[in-house]
Amino acid sequence: MSDIPEADWKHMRALQPTLINRLCARINARVSRIINDPALTHHERFLAMFAAIREENQNVAWAFDDWRRSTIRMRIIEIHRQGLFEPGEIAGLSDAMTQRLPGK
Question: How wide is the angle at C-alpha 51 spanned by C-alphas 48 and 55, nearest 5°?
Fold first, then answer.
């Protein structure tokens, strides 16, 4: 089993629905801007939307696929890299975990 503290694992399990919804809202807003861009043709919008979804799908995968205690440390780092944490959510993690986050 991972050496991540039980409290961090429980904290992340509780946050997971909020975090993935936050990411999906960001993705949906991006796609909405693309499909409502009057400077693009319908075909250009489709191509841009398709490219954005492919890119964002990778971001979802890096942050949320394989959500297990043994892999959660890398998920936490990726979620932080993507800017999905609110300050209070990071504060719920142990000092040992927050010190591993880039920029800390």
Answer: 135
Question: How many C-beta neighbours within 10 Å does residue 13 have?
Answer: 12
Report the Cα 36 to chain-centroid distance in Å: 24
Matching residue, tokens 């409502």? 36
Structural domain boundaries of the chain? 6-98
Q: Do 89 and 15 contact (CB within 8 A), yes or no?
A: yes
pLDDT of residue 91: 92
Tokens of 95: 């000092």
- CA-nearest of 51, 56, 48, 50 to 27 is 56
The model carries a pTM of: 0.88
How far apart are alpha carbons 99 and 31 in whole angstroms?
Answer: 34
